[in-house]
From TrEMBL:
Keyword Transcription regulation applies: yes
Highest taxon, organism lineage: Bacteria
Annotated stretches, region: Disordered: 147-167
This protein's name: Response regulator containing a CheY-like receiver domain and an HTH DNA-binding domain
All copies of domain HTH luxR-type, residue ranges: 161-226
Compositional bias annotation for Polar residues: 147-160
One Pfam family from the record: GerE
Lineage of the species this protein comes from: Bacteria, Bacillati, Cyanobacteriota, Cyanophyceae, Pleurocapsales
Response regulatory domain ranges (all copies): 3-119
PROSITE patterns: HTH_LUXR_1 (PS00622), HTH_LUXR_2 (PS50043), RESPONSE_REGULATORY (PS50110)
A biological-process GO annotation: regulation of DNA-templated transcription
Organism of provenance: Hyella patelloides LEGE 07179
GO molecular function: phosphorelay response regulator activity; transcription cis-regulatory region binding
SMART domains registered for this protein in UniProt: HTH_LUXR (SM00421), REC (SM00448)
């Protein structure tokens, strides 16, 4: 079941959206400000975020900006749902990282269509990560076969060097191996018996230490550098 985080200070709208989206078989969390939204995101990463712009404490623009500044928040689909429909507002929303911008009042069918489209786009990104893993895995198996042949013939195997140790803590390293196998935060949480928030914290630390921006770059880095401790 896909998880949606709804951020809006209008209690009635939050209630309506929660009911409507749950009828469509989504798991929905609702909060009333950007500050609460950041806390909700850290506790349990959603599959998509729908946010108002004008809110107390932290508005939607600032929430989106802070979210996109985090490595773990860069690829989460984000839709603004706001009464602020001026061209400048819509341009600002897109410029700080929103994937879409829908102006109130809105048609629920259009919102549902946008949600489904962005979730499908996210699925394709994840699929691409898995494809990258598969491509490198096939290449590694071919090189391994060549190396075995070379050893049998008394030759030195190619690319037999050992990768440098990862600059990670043991806990971060366990998450690293899970991520490069294509597992989501929720799957890693279940496999390692830790909270999704802890997984996200470790992943953020990993990306920062390796100077990478997102999971796709991490997968490429792992295989290009020869970190091949992967279960296939």
């Amino acid at each position: 079941m896909k998880k949606i985080l709804v951020v809006d200070d209008d209690k009635i709208l939050r209630t309506v959206l929660k009911h409507t989206l749950e009828q469509e078989k989504y798991q929905v969390t609702v909060v009333g400000s950007g500050t609460n939204a950041m806390e909700a995101f850290e506790n349990d990463t959603p599959d998509i975020i729908i946010s108002d712009v004008s809110m107390p404490e932290m508005d939607g623009f600032e929430f989106c900006r802070r979210l996109r500044s985090r490595p773990t928040g860069q690829l989460v689909p984000f839709i603004f749902l706001s009464a602020r429909g001026d061209l400048e507002d819509r341009i600002q929303g897109h410029s700080i990282g929103a994937d879409d911008y829908l102006v109130k009042p809105f048609e629920i069918k259009e919102l549902l269509a946008k949600i489904e489209a962005l979730i499908e786009k996210s699925r394709r990104i994840h699929s691409e990560i898995v494809n990258i893993i598969g491509q490198f895995a096939n290449g590694n198996k071919a090189r391994m076969s060549d190396n075995i042949t070379s050893v049998n013939q008394g030759q030195s195997p190619e690319n037999s060097h050992t990768p440098e140790p990862l600059p990670l803590t043991p806990a971060e390293e366990r998450v690293f191996w899970e991520v490069i196998q294509g597992f989501t935060n929720k799957q890693i949480s279940d496999r390692l018996f830790i909270s999704p928030r802890t997984v996200q914290t470790h992943l953020s630390n990993i990306l920062n230490k390796l100077n990478l921006e997102n999971r796709t770059q991490l997968v490429r880095f792992a295989f290009e550098k020869g970190y091949e401790k992967v279960q296939f």
